[in-house]
Amino acid sequence: MMNLFEGVRKMTDDEIRMQIALFRNVTLLNAAKETSGKVLGGLADIANAFAESFSKRTPFDFQVTRVCDMVRKEYDRLKANDRVQLEYELKKILTEKCRELVPEESEEPDEERLSFLIINEAAKVYGIHKYKTPSGKIEAVSTAYNNALLSVIHTRLQKQGKEEVIHTDQKIQDAMNAVSLDTKRQLQSALMPKEFSGRCIGRILRLERSTKYLSYTVTFLGYGCFDEVLSNVSAVFSAMRAFKRISRVLFAQMIWKIKNTSHLTFTIAENVLPAYLDPVRRQEFMIQEQEFRAALAGRIESEQQYAKCEQAVTKQEEKAADAKQRLELMQRDYDELQMKFMGLESRKDEYMNRTRPENETKDYYSEVNETKRRLDRAQAQLSKAGAKYREEEEKRGRAESEKNTAMLNLEVVKRKTEEEVRERAREIEKVWKAFFFRFSFEEDLFESVVIHFTRDEVLIIEEMLKELHESRNTGSFAYETKQEEDHTESVTYTVTPGEKVIRIVYEKTHIMQIG
User: Fold this and answer.
1) In angstroms, how far is the first alpha carbon of the chain from the final one?
2) What is the DSSP string of 410-460?
3) Three-class SS of residue 511?
4) Which parts of the chain are coiled coil (predicted)?
5) Alpha carbon distance 8, 99 (integer Å)
6) Those residues with Cβ within 8 angstroms of residue 119's Cβ, 6 or more apart along the chain or in another chain
7) In 3D, which of 195, 188, 182 has the Cα closest to residue 213?
């Protein structure tokens, strides 16, 4: 399930207010204001002023603090808005941000399509593979943003002054007082402080070099003790150092917030998928799989060779057709010139007997000579074109012969694996039609899946199909669309851990091709 708006609906009014306030105020323009005495002009001036501030600690801290104040003021103003207004405003902002980042998306997106676009843009911040499943991207984006947020909090903890230390330690103590006894025990076990107090835990967090203990602390106490507004604004602006788009980082922040507060499950549980095998069965299956793949290797190689030969024949047929067309044109030109020359020859006696005026005789012989030169040249070109056509025809014949040989070889190899391929294809067809009951499939798809994908890769395909199957609009997942005469084909992709890209072509709920 990838509809982020299901998560938004699980948010409190205050959490939605904060998201709107962040999107409206955490901007490049607000960050760059008042960074110099001159009036800022275009985007280049804004970017330069902002980049300049990164080299000096005080101006950057000032910017973050000032933008945080703007966020909090906006948050307070939004308290006058009811739930319907808040959800409408957030969706409107998200749609506008997506249109800025994806201008080719012309149609008004539904919730699933908008979620798909937001997830894809957020994934770009952290270099997550373009074709990872949406649920996989949600998980990866959330983890990456969380790590960035912990890093920012840890850096700020280490730079705190005396008053800030006292204030933060007290907030940690307040959070500890508010949690259950069982949570206190888990925190105690994870951090092993000398004394169980906010002051001691704060000291542990400031002295550690990594964010291990900080991660434990926010898991049990939450982010509230570390000024969540300041932390998020700092994390977003820190991403600017790597020249990341603020809108994309804010999308990542929102995904992280939804995942950590909605308690919704976005990822597909692997063990519910048809291709899943428990560790014991998997070990037994892998022995059979290795033998089957070894046998299939020859078949796949033969299929590739046959496909290569088919392409060669098609290419050679085109060359032979072009050569034939050129030969026919040359023949036509030659025939026309020959007819003209024969016509001139038939009048030769008139001019040899000197019965014509001298100037007309000169014109006649000039035309005869010119036509003869053109005829000789046309004959040479015709001869060359004929040789070229015969050469291309011979090549076409050889290509056709190689194709027939490759086809015979493929048939021999296929017979060795045909029975097992069909058996496995029937099994996949049976379980997929039951599991993905909303879908229909092309009949030849199952054998193709068996031949070209391992069991682990089929599991990745099933994960993507499951996401499609649970969606209200499968078109929301399309990276590409292709308009045919009577329908629109959608194309989506997924990718294996080894970065093998898998293409899925479908039309609404009909799966046409996986390859």
Assistant:
1) 23
2) HHHHHHHHHHHHHHHHHHHHHHHHHHTTT-EE-TTHHHHHHHH--HHHHHH
3) strand
4) 299-409
5) 20
6) 2, 4, 134, 137, 138, 141, 251, 255
7) 188
The amino acid sitting at 322 is: D
The single-letter DSSP state of residue 223 is: S
Residue given tokens 């050679």 in the structure block: 316
- CA-closest candidate to residue 371, choices 354, 350, 388, 348: 348
Contacts of 134 by beta carbon, 8 Å cutoff, 6+ apart: 2, 115, 116, 119, 467, 477
d(CA 310, CA 407): 10
Only one residue has tokens 């020359």, namely 341
Measuring CA to CA, which residue among 169, 49, 119 is closest to residue 479?
119
* Beta strand pairing call for 440-441 and 510-514: parallel
**Please, is 485 exposed, middle or buried when counting C-beta atoms within 10 Å of its C-beta (0-12, 13-18, 19+)?**
exposed
Residue 258 confidence (pLDDT): 94
Q: Do 65 and 4 touch, CB atoms closer than 8 A?
A: no
Beta strands 488-495 and 480-483: pairing type?
antiparallel
User: Residues with Cβ < 8 Å from 351, sequence gap 6 or more?
Assistant: 361, 364, 365
Distances (CA, A) of 182 to 143, 176, 189, 205, 245: 26, 11, 11, 21, 42
Burial class (CB in 10 A: 0-12, 13-18, 19+), 176: buried
DSSP 40: P
Residue type, 182: D
Q: In 3D, which of 223, 392, 216, 226 has the Cα closest to residue 313?
A: 392
pLDDT less than 50: residues of the chain? 34-43, 54-59
The sign of the dihedral angle between the CA atoms of 190, 191, 196, 199 is: negative
β-bridge mates for residue 503, sequence order: 493
What is the Cα–Cα distance from 431 to 433, expressed in whole angstroms?
6
Q: DSSP 3-state assignment of 109?
A: coil
pLDDT score for 105: 85
State the pLDDT at residue 106: 76
Please give the C-alpha separations between residue 449 and each of 222, 240, 426, 460, in angstroms, as whole numbers. 45, 43, 11, 12
What strands lie across the sheet with 480-483, from one edge to the other?
A: 440-441, 510-514, 501-507, 488-495, 480-483
CB 78 within 8 A of CB 18: no
pLDDT of residue 51: 53
d(CA 307, CA 299): 12
Q: What are phi and psi of 511, to 5 degrees?
A: -85, 120
Total residues found in the chain within this entry? 515
Other Cβ atoms within 10 Å of 144 Cβ, number? 19
Which residue's structure tokens are 């000398």?
A: 194
* Angle made by CA atoms 419, 424, 427, in degrees to the nearest 5: 130
Q: What pLDDT does residue 29 have?
A: 80
Structure confidence by residue, pLDDT tens digits, 351-394: 777 777 878 878 888 888 888 888 889 888 888 888 888 988 89
Radius of gyration of the chain (CA): 36
